[in-house]
Amino acid sequence: MSQSIAANRYAKALYELAKEKNVVAETVADLREVRIVFTESKDLFNLLVAPNLTTEKKFELIDSIFSSVQPIIVDALKVILVNNRIDETVSVIDSFIRIANDESGVEDAIVYSTEALTEDQLERISTTFAKQVGKDSLNITNEIDSSLIGGIKLIIGNRIYDNTIVSKVNGLRRALLG
After folding, report:
1. Structural domains in the chain plus CATH codes
2. Degrees, nearest 5: CA angle 2-26-141
3. Where would you tag: which of 59, 92, 103, 107 has the fewest CB atoms within 10 A of its CB?
4. How far apart are CA 110 and CA 154, in angstroms?
């Protein structure tokens, strides 16, 4: 998803505030949850852009839905709302996480496997592949995909490492059929 200049500015400002308050890790974790809410709930977005709701009612809605997250996130959402940028909330979150990851030498990754991987397996994957992408570690999300038959597929940014049985069979098929 492309990041607008405004989304990057909001993210930088929020990052600086989180860093000043020493709550960057907590803010990243909370923003991941906020992102889920905004991507999965179109009703929330529709309420926040509804012209018949007052700003105060929209603030109350934000306060109640996001009462468990860092207060700086709630305040940032209100600023984004007031400045008519609520449609860029997910972009702001993505930009914030990217900034935080860059500062801490971490990269987000998704590992697809046929079954849940153990913490030890995830740690070994992180250690091995983080070096290949020039990072200290990977923040790995493990997704289950039984269609892979076996092996793993790892996505780090725009890089894909595919060591699944399905990809090997497809490679053999291409080699044999020309």
Report:
1. 5-102 (1.10.520.20), 106-177 (no CATH)
2. 60
3. 103
4. 6
The pair of structure tokens assigned to 86 is 């609520």
Query: Residues 47-80: pLDDT tens digits?
Result: 999 999 999 999 999 999 999 999 999 999 999 9
What's the one-letter identity of residue 35? R
Res 147 pLDDT > 70: yes
Amino acid sitting at position 97:
I
pLDDT in tens, 26-49: 999 999 999 999 999 889 999 999
Q: How far apart are CA 151 and CA 175, in angstroms?
A: 20
Q: List, in order, residues 6 or more apart from 145 with CB less than 8 Å away.
A: 112, 113, 114, 153
Rounded to two decimals, the pTM is 0.82
Predicted local confidence at residue 73, as pLDDT: 98
Q: Which of 154, 99, 102 is nearest to 129 (CA)?
A: 154
Q: Under a CB-based contact definition with an 8 Å cutoff, are residues 94 and 4 in contact?
A: no
Q: How many CA atoms lie within 13 A of 81 on its CB side?
A: 25
**Contacts for 99 with CB less than 8 Å, ≥ 6 apart:** 11, 12, 15
